[in-house]
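Minimal example, chain plus acetamide.
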Amino acid sequence: MNKILSTFICALISTSAYAQSDVNLGIIPAPVSITKNNGNFVLDKTVVLKATGAEGAKMSELLNAFIVTKAGFSLREVRDLQANQKAIVITSVGADQLPEEGYNIKVTPNQILLTGKGAGLFYAVQSAMQMLPEKVNDKINIPAVSITDYPRFKYRGTMLDVSRHFFPISFIKKYIDQLAYYKINTFHWHLTDDQGWRLEIKKYPKLTAVGSSRNGTIIGHYPGIGNYLNEVKGFYTQNEAKEIVKYAAERYITVIPEIELPGHASAAIASYPELSCFPDRDTFVSDKTAWAGSKKGKQVQQTWGVFDDIFVPSENTFTFLENILDEVISIFPSKYIHIGGDEAPKTYWKESAFCQNLMKEKGLKDEHELQSYFIQTIEKHLNEKGRSIIGWDEILEGGLAPNATVMSWRGEAGGIAAAQQNHDVIMTPGSMGLYIDHKQSNSPDEPVTIGGFAPYQKVYAYDPIPKVLTTEQGKHVIGVQANLWTEYIKTPEKAENHAFPRLLALSEIAWSPVSRKDLKNFTEDRLPVHLAKMDKAGINYWVPTAIGQSDKALTGGEFTIDLKAPVAGAKIYYSLDESRPSENAFLYSAPFKVSVPQGEKRTLKTIVIVPSGRRSVVIETLLNNGAPDVKTEVKK
Ligand code: ACM
């Protein structure tokens, strides 16, 4: 056998070896229940495909296209089955009894039966695609099983910030494909912020003519060392946004737009200065770089942070925002419109005679109540149009708007308070791993990030229902979300690196019952297969570090190094001589022992290199046998 062929076959064998031994059949998120039965369904060219109804026909097309890529042949589609004909059957008959978005899969030696309706049937197909092992001799052997599945939470979301950096439509679609594959059903699109307004609004063309570009961005971590002088720009036309809504809906994903107010509004104010309390004031820039603030007038911000120049709560502003929101709701059919509400400093409102008079006139005791008045005015308008608002947890300050749903990001406190007030809540606490702009390991190889520490294991460990809530209050937690802010994420590739595999962990905590959580199975059995697929699909996921490597310094004289590849087909290279490992270092093939003489230390450094050539960060473990002057804190 030539080398390329044998390597290829090894990769296939290793992929299917992971999947077939897996109690979850390689499915992410883990289904509610899987019962193994006797025998196998052998998928070969003789199998036919039968679907009922228009929905079934669409799903059968989807599954057949997948079978072509997996097996190299397509299945003949039939209207009626002969007696005992081997078939895959896709149906919504019997689905009325299933929970919302739920489905069943029953595999017997003669049939694969997928039952569901709407999203449920789509998810049945996603699971079926995930559980198909690799083919051997033109056949795919699928173990006989019964799967019952439905989601824990109805809201399973992820937010992408396209204001700090702009991402093209082609990338948004590629991203949505992945969300659908993992049963994430909400794409929260953060369209406006201080650094760019990204949605065409026909009534106010300057929002994009002026607000969608900025002159530069800081180099490196805030406050940066100067700036890129190239322009950062881009926006979505209404037709493009509608195209995304349709594309997502075909995959059972709702797009929720976010229009930030009253803060994070610099791009809008740069376009229409009359929206400011002080239209004639130059933009205040909070950073210390020499280039910032060198221009007069209102600016789209070029760096990050929280800015004092927020919307003035005037009739003119409300009319302006309501007109914008009317266009927004004509594009986005979602029940929810996200109106931001976070990080709105009250400095300008305190200084503004107009705001102070308004507060007296309306009987508002402080600026928090003024913010609440602002949000409630907007909520009333949206409620009248049949929509509901979501706001970040600051909308609790000064009193919650009557029908608002709260997105808890500053820990869980906001979510808990809102649920205790009988408001619906979406949990997305940054401190619990749900801010996936945070870094994924402590290796110095990690790219520049905003800070924080959120490895996928931390996402996986999170339970969105806080223990302090009663059962009734807990029902107000309608879901969970991971947020991808993009201050330090300039390209689709880096966005993918931040998103995956953390969104796979999110999908499991959003969908699977707590009793089905199993980090070891997720990490060692399922992720390796999924990441190998992502590798082939050209997704720039974060390559996990070697499984089994200690993230703590170890003490002793004899160490057994027992590692596992985190991606099917990946290789682990290691060094013990302080050099940085690469393909030129030792290739790990089996557990080995390291002896460290008394009073000495060694450093085990590893790197994982996957079939495409993508590589992990290098991590190291100190093996210490009483060496002098060695710090023994966590090193990774
Ligand atoms: C936020 O991270 N400012 C919601």
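The first strand starts at residue 33 and ends at 43. Residues 342-343, 392, 409 surround acetamide (CB under 6 Å).
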